[in-house]
Amino acid sequence: MNARSITTVVIGAGHNGLAMSRSLTNLSIDHVVLERGDVANAWRHERWDSLRLLTPNWLSRLPGYAYGREHGGSDPDGFMTMSETIEFITGYARYTAAPVLTQTRVERVDPSGGGYRVTTNQGVWHCRAVVMANGAFGIPKVPSASLAVPDHIHMITPRSYRRPDQLPDGGVLVVGASASGIQLAKEIHESGRPVTLATGEHVRMPRTYRGKDILWWMDATGRSNEHIDEVDDPVRVRSVPSPQLIGTADRSTVDMNTLTDIGVEIVGRVCSIRNGACQTSGDLRNLCTMADLKGGRLLRTVDAWVIDNADKREDVAQVAAAFPDGETLEPTRVPDTPRMSLDLNSGEFRTIVWATGYSADYRWLNVPVLDHKGQLRHDGGVVRAPGMYAMGHTFLRRRKSSFIHGAEDDARDLSVHLAGYLANEHQRAEGWR
Asked: Which of 308, 330, 354 is the last residue of a domain?
């Protein structure tokens, strides 16, 4: 099969790749979007059945496209189901007529002649620029302690989990208390299986505050738009766990107090597993106290912003009148003596769910841009290789970067940078003649 040439190859036809495609089109940069499966492939095949977006529908937007306008949705304060999310993204692909090639799996990317050679199962592309829009959530991160789990314990990650009835009957240990972990702990417990939740560092947020969704406050106060250049420690903020925030039909808060109330046992983080004994940390109370303090500081920031803006915005004045006093988070209730050893050979546990996060999948990338930990070296999505870019990472350029509504601003910035790179490359080539 003959190699084809194009200016830019975008890898991935999820919301990030499609947002970048629209931005490149706006700048008249020719490109192709390569997708290993179908549009919105990860949403179709790597999410559990009951999952909803943790962002409210009114916040769902992509360049030139928004829920309730082009999409036609009628529940702005709700949270999209997976089927609705897939339709939102595929509808956007249709709306923009994005040049997507589906069932085209990227197998290798190599430097080639000042650009890149992109090898796929459908042939080879030569290009001057590559945008890796496959995101940072390609491979579940499972700790090495899993290698010592007894053979009779069923292990699964959120990527392959679909519903409780695929699990064996009996107790379940959920490891990880971020957005995925708390939702799965609740769902699995409600299926009749006893659940223990092993909790590490986490970010606590209420679903609503002073009558508004917490993400309304994040958006209104500008916190969602905080740029990576404005934070003291970019490495630290990019490693912060996702908030304990899930989308529910009734907009309810689900946190560790919620789980305790329904009978989920809370223990510390998993430290080691040896001979069937799972040792957990003794710092559960400290971890919960820190999460409570940080959550409280966020709410006090909101309160201060309300005071400063109540006389400037009618909607804020209405909030101030309806909720004149700020609310406080109930402290996380921690057992007086949480268990620090779980016997995996006792029959108490039949399943472990490793809700311990994800890492990006760059196994096909043959360009020296990964550090010694396998992390992509980039500056706000501008990768440390000429003409190479990345989309969809946590706090890539802004706090909102990993969310659907964060793709628009990042795609605009990076496409402008890419256009400048192409123009400078052309000028250099002209100078050499």
From this structure: 354
pLDDT at 1 exceeding the cut of 90: no
Packed helices 314-322 and 284-309: angle between N→C axes, nearest 10 degrees: 120
Number of alpha carbons in the 13 Å side-chain half-sphere of residue 49: 7
Phi, psi of 384, deg, nearest 5? -75, 50
Task: Decide if pLDDT at 397 tops 60.
Answer: yes
Q: What is the pTM of this model?
A: 0.94
Measured N-to-C along each axis, helices 407-432 and 15-26 cross at an angle, to the nearest 10 degrees, of 50
Question: Which of the two residues, 393 and 1, has the higher pLDDT score?
Answer: 393
427 pLDDT band, cuts 50/70/90, is low
Asked if residue 278 and residue 133 are part of one domain, the reply reads: no
Structure tokens at 377: 């070296």
DSSP 8-state secondary structure symbol assigned to residue 347:
S
Q: How many helices (H) and strands (E) does the chain have?
A: 10, 25
Are residues 114 and 162 located together in one domain of the fold?
Answer: no
The two tokens of residue 193 are 């299986």
Please answer whether residues 395 and 179 qualify as being in contact, where contact means their C-beta atoms are separated by less than 8 angstroms. no
Of 257, 197, 220, 243, nearest to 58 (Cα)? 220
pLDDT digits (tens, 9 = 90+) for 204-256: 999 999 999 999 999 999 999 999 999 999 999 999 999 999 999 899 999 99
Average pLDDT estimate for 14-20: 98
Alpha helices in 330-386 (DSSP H): none
- Give the pairing type, strands 154-156 and 61-62: unpaired
Q: How far apart are CA 291 and CA 295, in angstroms?
A: 6
- Average per-residue pLDDT in the chain? 95
Considering the domain architecture, whether residues 334 and 368 belong to the same structural domain is answered as no
